[in-house]
Write a structure and sequence with these properties.
The protein has 384 residues and is an alpha/beta fold. The protein has helices at 6-14, 36-46, 66-71, 127-132, 147-157, 172-180, 182-191, 193-218, 241-262, 279-284, 302-309, 324-327, 330-344, 364-377; strands at 34-35, 61-62, 76-79, 90-93, 96-98, 104-107, 113-117, 161-165, 224-228, 266-270, 289-291, 314-319, 350-354. It has two domains: 1-74 and 292-384, no CATH class; 76-83 and 131-289, TIM Barrel. It has a seven-stranded parallel β-sheet. The protein has a four-stranded antiparallel β-sheet with strand order 4-5-6-7, with helices on one face. A two-stranded antiparallel ribbon has the order 1-2.
Length: 384
């Protein structure tokens, strides 16, 4: 039997069939990248001398250079919308800026940006305020400039699985929290439900239009559609399953239905945290694969997830970034890679990468150990 191409390997696994080895991902989306210090260390360790170009949005992570991706035999390649041109971010000071949605971001000591204010945070929850707001234009040409050509080149000149980030924001639920305020929006869901639902509907409509425009540009030259919307933290979900099902799920469902009507590509959904109680709902609305499989979070045991959902949902991630990658040695990393492949690789339905972006504390030898062990041991993963 001939070896599969990179694209065939990923799609075979997402179809819950056993590929010739476990597929590998690095940098196909903003949540599978590597932070600048760790990337610089990795580049030196491997003896590469290419320029490091931080990802444009946060300027703290790197889309890995092709030489790195080929060194690890990565099966995926990223495709992302551009930046808004009709409206740009406003710099407040060296560490603070306001983005095109009116959300204020501030750099922390760890070089992360966190949102500290939003356009609706200090206002009363009135629908008129939402209607009067100057929302970003989903038809802004900067978002789609060159997207068609890049997708065409990737398809014509390579055999990689192409992962398209369908919208350039952090999701529907999370975008509402960024614009309204974290605690304010959670309270709105219970106390100002009509207002919260109108805010979600406006953002859902904008997401649908941006996704439709991107998908019209790339046509069939994509294989996986990435969409993120964090729904959980370490111990639980941000809202109860009932609240999700009644208020948030219908917006997700409408978005995914619009996307699926435009493209046969598989939907890869990202949510951090303990979201076990929402997985059935995500499957119900058309999610094909779940990222990042935060194995350190409550109720996110990979063996349990594979047993209960593995015939209906693929998993993308699962290599622990809290303890194993930063604080284990190469031996422990290799052992963890084998353990996760044994648990999640059986019968396909698994793409291996780190749980989150590879952080500054992760030694380069651990990154090498992760991908080398995955490439070697993944050929001998358990058969269905």
């Amino acid at each position: 039997m001939r070896p599969l191409t990179h694209r065939e390997r990923v799609l075979t696994s997402l179809c819950h069939e056993q590929p010739d080895r476990v597929p590998l991902d690095l940098g196909s989306s903003s949540v599978t990248e590597i932070v600048v210090p760790a990337y610089e260390n990795l580049k030196r360790y491997l003896g590469f001398e290419h320029e490091v170009k931080p990802d444009g949005r946060w300027q703290r992570t790197v889309i890995p250079h092709e030489t790195i991706l080929q060194r690890f035999d990565i099966d995926t390649r990223c495709l992302r919308p551009g930046e808004f041109k009709g409206r740009t971010r406003k710099r407040i000071d060296a560490d603070t800026y306001v983005d095109v949605w009116g959300v204020t971001w501030k750099k922390t000591e760890g070089n992360f940006h966190i949102n500290v204010d939003g356009p609706f945070k200090q206002t009363k929850p009135k629908i008129d305020t939402l209607e009067a707001f100057q929302w970003p234009d989903p038809n802004d040409r900067g978002l789609y400039e060159g997207l068609k050509e890049k997708a065409g080149r990737l398809r014509q000149d390579s055999d990689f699985a192409i992962v398209l980030t369908v919208v350039p924001i952090t999701g529907i639920f999370r975008q509402c929290m960024a614009m309204r305020g974290f605690s304010e929006f959670l309270m709105d869901l219970y106390e100002n439900t009509e207002y919260a639902c109108r805010l979600m509907d406006i953002i859902t409509d904008l997401c649908i239009k941006m996704a439709e425009n991107a998908l019209d540009a790339v046509g069939e030259n994509v294989d996986v559609l990435f969409f993120a919307d964090d729904l959980g933290h370490q111990q639980s979900t941000f809202v109860s399953p009932k609240t999700y099902q009644e208020l948030i799920k219908p917006r997700h469902q409408r978005f995914f239905a619009a996307v699926k009507s435009r493209s046969p590509a598989r939907i890869l959904f990202h949510s951090d945290g303990s979201i076990y109680t929402l997985i059935e709902d995500l499957i119900d609305i058309g999610v094909d694969a779940l990222n990042p499989v935060q194995v350190s979070a409550r109720n996110m045991d990979p063996a349990r997830l594979k047993k209960e959902f593995g015939n209906r949902l693929a998993f993308w991630g699962a290599i622990d970034t809290r303890d194993i990658l930063p604080f284990g040695g190469p031996k422990e990393v290799r052992e963890e890679v084998r353990r996760i492949i044994d648990l999640m690789g059986k019968g396909g339905g698994y793409v291996l990468t780190s749980v989150h972006c590879i952080q500054a504390e992760v030694p380069p030898e651990n990154i090498v150990a992760m991908f080398e062990e995955a490439r070697s041991y993944g050929k001998h993963s358990p058969k269905a």
